[in-house]
UniProtKB/TrEMBL annotation, chains A, B:
It comes from the Bacteria. InterPro entries: Ala_racemase_N, D-amino_acid_metab_enzyme, D-ser_dehydrat-like_dom, D-ser_dehydrat-like_sf, PLP-binding_barrel. Signal peptide: none annotated. Keywords: Lyase. One of its GO terms (biological process) is D-serine catabolic process. Its EC number is 4.1.2.42. It comes from Thalassovita autumnalis. Belongs to the DSD1 family. This is D-threonine aldolase. GO terms for molecular function: D-serine ammonia-lyase activity; D-threonine aldolase activity. Residues 249-340 form the D-serine dehydratase-like domain. Pfam families: Ala_racemase_N (PF01168), D-ser_dehydrat (PF14031).
Amino acid sequence: MSNATSWDQIDTPAACVDMNVAEANVRAYQAYCNQHGLDLRPHIKTHKLPSLADYQIAQGAVGITCQKISEAEAMLDGMRTKDVDLLITYNILGAAKVARLKALSQRCRLSVVADNATVIAGLAAGFDASAPLDVYVECNTGADRCGVDSAEAALQLADQINAAAGLRFAGLMTYPPAGKIAEVRHWFAEAQAVFAAKSVAIPRITTGGSPDMWQAHEMDLADELRVGTCVYNDRSLVERGTAKWQNCALTVLATVVSVPAENRAVIDAGSKVLTSDQLGLNGHGAVLGRDDIVIDSLSEEHGRLVSDGPIDLQVGDKLRIVPNHVCVVVNMLDELVEIRDGQVIGPLPVAARGQVR
Amino acid sequence: MSNATSWDQIDTPAACVDMNVAEANVRAYQAYCNQHGLDLRPHIKTHKLPSLADYQIAQGAVGITCQKISEAEAMLDGMRTKDVDLLITYNILGAAKVARLKALSQRCRLSVVADNATVIAGLAAGFDASAPLDVYVECNTGADRCGVDSAEAALQLADQINAAAGLRFAGLMTYPPAGKIAEVRHWFAEAQAVFAAKSVAIPRITTGGSPDMWQAHEMDLADELRVGTCVYNDRSLVERGTAKWQNCALTVLATVVSVPAENRAVIDAGSKVLTSDQLGLNGHGAVLGRDDIVIDSLSEEHGRLVSDGPIDLQVGDKLRIVPNHVCVVVNMLDELVEIRDGQVIGPLPVAARGQVR
């Protein structure tokens, strides 16, 4: 594949990224944020590419978001941008990880989040006043994952952070539930009132989520957005109306290896490429140009395609598939195939793949 | 993690393999096959470890099964066994892949499968009589994935294989549906009759599937079994009654990073470790010792745990999780943690991880 110069020569299965589309996606959302006075801090979990993070910052992003320390380390290893502003939206726990966080803080402008006193105490033990760490309090605005449930609980943690010599309260962070902008706005309005009553400043409010990305300005209390998926887009965002098929930068190229029945075919991409993430959708991806086909089951190396009538595919046919959830597909492969101006450029190593710690 | 010498020092999330359990699983199933006069050709997709494949062969396996060429290449690169007998149970298609297959055939005793004339023609073009390739015909015995639907169709492909100078018909292969041993037996009995009527020998019948592994002898027409998952076992096999919890060699070690509500906790292992494979089960893995907990949702780096009553977990607690489907978990990580005699040995690189082509 490294010598591939045309689509025909791409060895399948492969995940192909049209970099023109990806860069257009970056510019379009940066323009939206500029228009609405919002800071953009893209989550790199979708692309995991230092070069694309550099591009995002060059277009106006204030920094990047990572989810784990190892992911941040891999990104900094590859990025050309100096003095990156980097937020890790995760509870970092344990002395070993806090030591790595300390080392990381010397390579970038670092901030993290916390939603409990144990995590804050651990961070406080690893940092001192000479180089304090910025810590956001994570708030549960309805997604019911991490985050404190009330403004009062957030204030209590903010006080704990401000009381630690090595920490600075940076503001409030949330990963919001989709389709609930009014509720998220209400949550933060209440938090502002509770904090103001105790004269505790909230330096910044940061929120995320590609599903509601074009309505983010309606949640007018946020300073910053941390969208990830929209750099490539995927079937879940198209089905939601957030993106169109032509905005999907990543497609999985697969070959039909068997047509064992009139209404059934099998491709060489299974869960090791497409993953089992369904995000509530029917099937395991959209076959471009073939709305009649459902990828109805995956095993590790086989994808099964079915249709109501004759499937009209031949062994050897190649198909392009928009995955349900693009972030997890990127994480499956050591390298993607880069496309520019319709040309196959070559392999694109996924620098921060598989970084879970 | 590379310096970890105790469980406490393992950085989480991590997938830990108790090699004593894995080796006992290998020996137990080899003994079953020996008792019933069955050849065992384990599928390496579960462990992806050359050293464990060597162990399987040393215990009596006749060879190994791989699913893709790249997987076979990675295994041979690392194995110490000389002259490995290696079956790739996949339709290999396209000149580039057939050329790689040819190169592979010079490194081992190789066989492949085919379920259509296009694949056979491609193989025939790449091999010649000086070193013919063994080709099985894949049969659909009810799993409705790949495979020909009838004994007559199988015979037609066997004839095509035997007519090609560079190919040899090796026999019939199936990936059987679970719980349908009688039906699979019936399929092959019919095939034997159809082939015998035309005086075409079936050198070998090979079948697979861990779910029915302990009943495999009832399908008494098979010469060979290609089980994979049972080297480690997982929640799906325990729930099916095929294995017990103590036979599960791989557990995911995770840390509780948040307890945001009385009945909810969040661990640092999400779909990037546990994957979204549910195999029909409720939740995303079994928390050992905590039957009351369900891992009810995963995002990439978060696993959400819920219980009916108080969840009784503290931030910092470590949990061991038996995944629903172990093969796909192994594929997520560049390295596992090897455990022997209760001791942490160190990192175990997953040599054939992510090999999809």
